[in-house]
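Listing 4. Sequential folding, example run.
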Amino acid sequence: MIRTGIGYDLHRLVSGRPLLLGGVHIPFDKGEDGHSDGDVLLHALTDALLGAAGLGDIGEFFPPGDPRWKDADSAQLLASAWAAIKDKGWQLENIDAVVALEKPKFLPWREAVRASIAGILGVDTDQVFVKAKTGEGCGAVGRSEAVAVWATCLLSR
């Protein structure tokens, strides 16, 4: 059996927070505003994987109103969800994601992000791909007010 999943997340960019993408700190003067550490890429991946496995979504697993998840490490959240998915017999075929971010440029960080995600999931780096697009100056992403991510995955068992 094979299943696909899709995930999406968007966070405002604010001063005084680190910019985290895929578990990698990217130097910038703004970061994601969120209940946890705000890593939009890991949140979207978590949703994609949970959806493909039919296990719910990130909000069910880690409710944002629960103080236990305040400033939580999104890598640990993803690892926990992935353990539940693997317990159901699923294995990862691949992940593909798009990060919508006006600045900073993502390309210099791509390989570190791919390696980080692969490490969290315990898979090969070639099973993970991430690319970025700008907002072309349009909307909240284009004005550097937000970062958004779309992620898809393929699971099999």
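-- end of first protein; second protein begins --
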Amino acid sequence: MCSVGNGHRPRPGERDPTALSALVLWGACLLLIVANVINIGADLGGMAQASELVTGINALLWTPVYAGLIVVLLFWSSYRRIARIFKWLTLVLFAYVATAFLAQTDWKAALAATLLPRVHWSRDFLSLLVAILGTTISPYLFFWQAAEEVEEERAMGKNAEQRKGATDEELRKQRTDVMTGMFFSNFIMYFIILTTAATLHAHGQTHISTAREAAEALRPLAGDGAYWLFTLA
């Protein structure tokens, strides 16, 4: 029998709280692994399909190329350098903001739907809600951010003992960083949804199943170059 923290021993037939806690912990870890693997696979697949649009090379060949490239960068580069590159690349996402103003958006209807959303308890609505949460709150990003924070502190010359805990100033800076990132993430997500609705959905294309179809949302801004812009975005 395993004893718990307060010295209580489970009676015969009584469930051990420690064993139950361990079961919940490992179950949550397993779900996190599955979510991360599926999320990373979806990201790699999206990058591969976007590359296929502009190169004609099958996405199945691009997927291992991108996976290998990212692994190489993680081993022989630094989070600081990778974050700096990605930070500049994300500027292209503002193309969705520009497209929203060029696509003859019905702003009155858009604002009404934004402020007074209509909730439908249907399979399509709930699937879309889960998709939005899944693409804006990627579980592996928490590990990415934690690793980057550690690397930045090591670059500042802090040893393992000095890296324990955080000062109030460090917590304020991290909070500002996270809040700013989440604001722009959701800001861009809003305009991606708005642009897609004003272009594809407005013309009867209610289901997007390929990267080529998604790229068409940027045509009002980039014309025939929409595929190139979508690839960068």
